[in-house]
User: Which sequence fits this backbone?
């Protein structure tokens, strides 16, 4: 019986040997600063919209939509983004729509909406 056990142990030592090291999968890198859409500093939120699959973010800003849209457009231009569609009004006329392309060529869509000069919202669609 001992020779059989010894034969089994000797033939199965490779099963007990340490496995060869495997490289861990590369982690996704966070977007570089030039890829971050410039949201105003006084904006709150940034929560994903229901049903948007995490690609639609919503922010509230304590200022009117026209002022916020102008500020964001200026920030985009300074950061080197290209505004491909500027100021398309929604069918209802209550929001300002902007499409911009980042330095790497990704298309972002932003809508600025609000009914008065006290509060507005930014709805940002990520690529």
Assistant:
């Amino acid at each position: 019986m001992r020779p059989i056990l010894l034969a089994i142990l000797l033939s199965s030592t490779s099963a007990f040997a340490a496995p060869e090291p495997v490289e861990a999968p590369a982690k996704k890198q966070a977007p570089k600063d030039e890829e971050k859409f410039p949201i105003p500093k006084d904006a709150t939120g940034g929560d994903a919209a229901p049903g948007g699959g995490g690609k639609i973010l919503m922010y509230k800003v304590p200022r009117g939509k026209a002022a916020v849209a102008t500020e964001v457009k200026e920030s985009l231009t300074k950061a080197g983004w290209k505004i491909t569609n500027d100021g398309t009004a929604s069918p209802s006329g209550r929001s300002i729509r902007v499409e911009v392309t980042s330095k790497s060529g990704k298309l972002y869509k932003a809508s600025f909406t609000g009914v008065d000069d006290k509060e507005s919202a930014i709805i940002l669609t990520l690529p």
User: Anything to note?
Assistant: The chain has three helices and six strands. Strands lie at 44-48, 56-61, 82-89, 95-101, 107-113, 120-125.
